[in-house]
Amino acid sequence: MKPTTAIRTYLNDLLLLAFPDNCLLCTHPLMSDEKDICYSCIDSLPQTDYHLSSDNPVAQHLWGRVPLVHAASYLYVRDGNVTQQMIHLLKYKGKKKVGIKLGRLYGYKLKEQGSHYPKIDIIVPVPLHINRQRQRGYNQCDLFAQGLSEILEVPYEPSVLTRVIETVSQTKHSRYERWGNVEGIFELSQPEKVTGKNVLLVDDVITTGATIESAAATLLQGKDVTLSVATIATAGR
Ligand SMILES: [Zn+2]
Questions:
Q1: Is there a single domain that holds both residue 21 and residue 51?
Q2: Domains in the chain, number
């Protein structure tokens, strides 16, 4: 994170301590019908609109690696932009409601315009390793999944997958490797919950795609599973 962003985040924290009913991003007071993030900030979110296209860059990035019905990301993230600010609040500042809010916002988008996705039966967040989850106290992907679940009116199941290896070694996973090679990071703990289901796998940021690829390959070990992917953000703009 750039020093200017760090200072802005720090000032933001101070303001929000003093005025809890202010926007989490711009710190302006919220109107009575606004919650957590003001309408002006929501309007300015750098949306990808990738859900509108079956051959969007996120879907293309995963082509040939793991069989998916559809894949998309809600927002562009880059150094210092509002998405990076939100992900920082969500992951490192305990602002769990940012995750739920983003899930709800994307949920509304997908409910109205998510026709490239099949009818989703169950939402599965990419799990953290137990050590990381204990350290943070929560999994940020669970919160995004929770917000999506509320709006799409389908359950989310945080215990379907278990992360058994803490980090993905990026050097091991060139995108030309077969998806089978990245198995072993996750385990399918509750296969019965995804049998015959249209599953939506959700993550925070897609970078190399190695984590998603591995989680997807593990979910597809379930019987008659069809899989799609949605993430909060992807690099760009
Ligand atoms: Zn705002």
A1: no
A2: 2
